Amino acid sequence: MRAQFVLSEIGVGLRRNLTMTFAVIVSVALSLALFGGSLLMRDQVNNMKGYWYDKVNVSIFLCNKADAESVAKCSKGAVTAQQKKDIEGDLKKLDIVQTVTYESADEAFKHYKEQFGDSPMAGSITPDQMQESFRVKLKDPEKFKVVATAFAGRDGVQSVQDQKGILENLFSLLGGMNVAAVLIMAVMLVVALMLIVNTVRVSAFSRRRETGIMRLVGASSFYIQAPFIMEAAFAGVLGGIAASGMLIVGRYFMIDHGLDLSHKLNLINFIGWDAVLAKLPLVLAASVVMPALAAFFALRKYLKV
Prior knowledge:
The structure is a single chain. By secondary structure, the protein is an alpha+beta fold. 68% of the residues lie in helices and 8% in strands. It has helices at residues 3-16, 18-53, 65-70, 81-93, 105-116, 144-151, 164-206, 208-216, 221-256, 261-264, 273-299, and strands spanning 57-62, 97-103, 133-138, 157-162. A 4-stranded antiparallel sheet has the order 2-3-1-4. The longest helix has 43 residues, at 164-206. The two termini are 17 Å apart.
C-alpha cells in the first residue's frame, strides 16, 4: 500500500467533513477527559483512604460522675482506678492493637478548649464534665468491631467510637461523585462513537465512486478501509491530546496554582503528578483504538469487496 495515496485520502476526507471531524475531536476530548478524571478520582479516594485510615483511632470513653446519673451504661457509677487498669491491660493484650494512649479529663478539657473555645457552650463546660478515654491505634482499622465487641459492655465504659465512621461519609460522597463522572463519561463516549460512525459513513458515501473503482480493479477490503479508519484515528488522537491537556491543566490549576487546593486543604493528601502522567498513555491509546474500531465496524457493511 502506498503511503502517499493513503495520506492523500485522509486529507481529502478531513477537508470534506471538517465540521463533523471537529465535533468528533471535541466529543472524544470531553469523554476521554472525563475517563481520565474518573480514574484520577478513584486514585484520589484510595489515596485518602490509605492516608486517613492510617491515622484513625478507636476511642473508648469512660464513665464519669455525670454519666452515672444520666447514662444507663454507667448506672454502676464512674469508672474506678482498677477498671481503668484492667481495660488498658486487656487492650494491650490484643494482637490488633498497635498503641494505647490514655487521656485524662483535664487533657480532654484542654483539647476541647483548643478546638471549640470560641463556641457559646465552651464557657459552661468544666473539666469534671469531660470524659476520660483511651485512644487506641489499630494495626488494621477494619478490625474496629473486635474492640467494640470486647469493651462496649464493660463496667466503666460509656461508649466505644470509631473515627472511621466519620470518614466513611466523606468517602461515600467522593465515590458518588466518581460514579456521576463515569456516567457522564459513558454518555459522552456514546455520543463520540455515534459521531465517529456518522462521519465515516458520510465520508464513505461522498467517495463511493472512488471506492467503486477500487473494487473493480481488485483492491482488498483493508486497502479501501484504511484511509477511513486512519481518518477516524487521526481525529481521535487530536481529541486524546486535547483530553491529556485538560487533565494536566486541571491538575495544575486546581491543586498547584489557581485554586491552590494543596495549600487551602492541607489536610488532604492529593495525588501527585506521577498519577496524572501514568494515565496519559491510557487516554492516548483509547483515543486511537476507540475511533479506529468504530470506523472499522461501521465500514464493514458499506465497503465489502
